[in-house]
Amino acid sequence: MLKYLKTHGEAIKQAIAEGKYKPNPVRRVEIPKDDGGQRPLGIPTVIDRLIQQAIAQILSPIYEEQFSSNSHGFRPQRSCHGAIKQAQEHINQGYKYVVDMDLEKFFDTVNQSKLIEVLGRTIKDGRVISLIHKYLTAGVVIRHSYKDTYEGVPQGGPLSPLLSNIMLNELDKELEKRGHKFVRYADDLMIFCKSRRAAERTLANIIPFIENKLFLKVNKAKTVVDYVGRVKFLGVSFYEKDGEARVRIHPKSIAKLKARIRQLTARSNGWGNEYRKKKLREYITGWINYFKIADIKSLLVRLDEWLRRRIRMVVGNNGRKSKPSLPTSRN
User: Pairing state of beta strands 97-102 and 38-43?
Assistant: First the structure.
């Protein structure tokens, strides 16, 4: 890579400056989703990834000044934990009904013309706008076959998270203008209301803006209005204890954990006990670091017992001295 840049770097910079650089199509790969489907990712070439990263590094500080404090995804100094804590604050203020919004195939259906229009309000250098547009329309290679990309923002490149936030910032500003309490992490959006009727009215009123102004599609089958304790947000759900909003792990997240542990402990994967233990500890430690925001102490006790039984099935009685267990948690 370094050798290639030393040889061709100046020519690439000149082509970009003159507006002549042409990005390569991205390579399409698919990764499994929690619902059993597949999430398409577009993997850019190394050079295009480098150029996209450079664009993102320049534009991110500019747009950070415009982004909403209610937006937490793919932003510096922000995280899922911040989004969850903000949701707790809204619940504690009495906003106990939510619009759990699902934007249908958001990354695949972004209207590129609308996105370019939004970018043009801030970016005044036409070469930058043109280069971003070229990345949007560079096409995709699926199993050695080329396909044009007339809509969407390909997931997988350094630029796509920023572009998605720029697009959805239009929705954030509209919600703020209407005085709504909401939390957004990427395309996961919850709008908080004080009653079911208010939430239903909010949903009915915001759909025309999303579909007619931003040209996005609301998945009406998956978008729900419900009591906040019955919805899943970033892997957790909420409940009230002593008049205070608390966080617990959603049952689907627990089921996903167990399914992954079954994969890691399957006899058929051919792993040795030491390597299996290493992979288990890595996964479990990451899982607990994410969900430590929730009330998990009693859950960890039950999961630890389940995990030990699972391990005994795999390694037998001779493995008792080296059985991995769940790390302790302060919660």
Answer: unpaired
